[in-house]
Every structure is written in structure tokens, then in C-alpha cells.
Specification:
The protein is an alpha/beta fold and 231 residues long. It has one domain: Rossmann fold (3-Layer(aba) Sandwich). It has eight helices and eight strands, in the order ααβαβαβαβαβααβββ. It has an eight-stranded mixed sheet. β1, α3 and β2 form a beta-alpha-beta unit. α5 packs parallel to α6 and α6 crosses α8. The protein is globular, with a radius of gyration of 16 Å. It starts with a helix and ends with a strand. The relative contact order is 0.14. It is an enzyme of class 2 (transferase). This is Ubiquinone biosynthesis O-methyltransferase. Belongs to the methyltransferase superfamily. UbiG/COQ3 family. O-methyltransferase that catalyzes the 2 O-methylation steps in the ubiquinone biosynthetic pathway.
Length: 231
């Protein structure tokens, strides 16, 4: 299975804090509106069948469901999925959650989804190329796929690891393994090898003084990629 047991354990132990906006997941809550708006700039979600890969506690899944999408979220953390399922019931949203690897779902449901999202996940798995290929299999021809991850360079190490985990303490220490960060050129190669066309590359920056996130052309640290599966 394309998963790191230590990564799963780490996020499972924090599962009960997914929906606390002041918890370790505060950054996810704060960047979610930016990510959602960026996705909707590329494809209106209303009525679309959407798969959220590595959905965790369901922050993005719920926001896409509120936009009128028919959402399925998958993850390998049963505790995170339990939190996601309960919160969706409390929110009155109809979201299907399943504990399954994306590669297994791709074998079962190829060409099923209009949109696939895989955000903040690729840097946590042993083989990101395998995840990209599975996402490409799951989306319909002409469908859209959205990835986000962390660049691998000294600036990213300084800001995303040293700054975020040790100085500002925005994230628990050990949240990220710098060796697993992915350069945009590497992600682009994974996408092209899987039959995907890259439509947009966008960075996300954080100002520690204003505590404000913004979309940017600066892809040195956090970045997002929009792709289309060739018909």
C-alpha cells in the first residue's frame, strides 16, 4: 500500500482536532477558502461529481459540497474519516466517505469523476507518482484534477519546516519531511506521464506579520497545480 504508517499514525492521533479552527489544523482552515475559490475559477462545482483524495477530516470536502458538488472523500485514516462523517451529519451535508487507497479506488472506478482534488497529500506518501497516476485514471476524459504540495528547495525548508514548525509553531514538529517535498518540475513530469495537461501553476504565500495567506506567482514554498485529462 502506498502509505507511510508513521504518517497515518500522526494524523490519526490528531483526528479529534480537525474541526477546531485554533488547533494544529488552523492553517488548513485558513487556506481552504483560497483553495476553493481557485478550484472554482477553473471549474464550477455545482452538480459535478467530485473525489477528494486524502480528505482527512473533510474540510475541503464539506466546502465543495456546499458549492453543490456530489462529493466522495477517501483517506486511509479511519479516525479522520470518522470525524469527517460525523461532522458532515452535523452540518447537514450528504458526503460519502470511504477508507480506501486511491490506487484501489482507481482500479474499481476508472473514469468516474468530473473533478478530483488531492491537496496537501502528495508530500506524505512514499510514491507521489502512483497517486497522480491513480487520480488521472479516476477522472473522466476532459475532467479536471487539482494538486497542492510543497516545493523542495532551501527556502521551502526554511519557511515550511523551520519557520512553521519550530519558530512560529503553526504546525506540530515533524509534520513535514523535507525529503518528501516535490519540485513543480517533478510533479509536472508525473502529470504528463499520466496523460494530464497542466493548465495552471499557482503559489500560496503567508505573511507572518499580518497572518494573511494569499495566492501568488511565487511557487517557492506552497504551490497548486490544475490539470486536465486529455480526452
Amino acid at each position: 500500500m502506498n502509505a507511510d504508517p508513521q504518517e497515518l499514525q500522526k494524523f490519526s492521533e490528531l483526528a479529534h482536532r480537525w474541526w477546531d479552527p485554533q488547533s494544529e489544523f488552523k492553517p488548513l482552515h485558513e487556506i481552504n477558502p483560497l483553495r476553493l475559490d481557485w478550484i472554482e475559477q477553473h471549474v464550477p462545482l455545482q452538480g459535478k461529481r467530485v473525489l477528494d483524495v486524502g480528505c482527512g477530516g473533510g474540510i475541503l470536502s464539506e466546502s465543495m459540497a456546499r458549492q453543490g458538488a456530489r462529493v466522495k472523500g477517501i483517506d486511509l485514516s479511519s479516525k479522520a474519516l470518522g470525524v469527517a462523517d460525523l461532522h458532515s451529519l452535523e452540518s447537514g451535508l450528504s458526503i460519502e466517505y470511504e477508507e480506501i487507497a486511491v490506487e484501489a479506488l482507481a482500479a474499481r472506478e476508472p473514469g468516474t469523476y468530473d473533478v478530483v482534488t488531492c491537496l496537501e497529500m502528495l508530500e506524505h506518501v512514499p510514491s507521489p507518482a502512483s497517486v497522480v497516476a491513480a487520480c488521472a485514471t479516476l477522472v473522466k476524459p476532459g475532467g479536471r484534477i487539482f494538486f497542492s504540495t510543497l516545493n523542495r528547495n532551501p527556502k521551502a525548508y526554511l519557511l515550511a519546516v523551520v519557520g512553521a514548525e519550530y519558530v512560529l509553531r503553526m504546525l506540530p514538529r515533524g509534520t513535514h519531511d523535507y525529503a518528501k517535498f516535490i519540485r513543480p518540475s517533478e510533479l509536472a513530469a508525473f502529470a504528463r506521464a499520466s496523460g494530464l495537461r497542466i493548465d495552471d501553476l499557482r503559489g500560496m504565500t503567508y505573511n507572518p506579520l499580518t497572518r494573511h495567506y494569499a495566492l501568488s506567482s511565487d511557487t517557492d514554498v506552497n504551490y497548486m497545480v490544475a490539470c486536465t485529462r486529455d480526452a
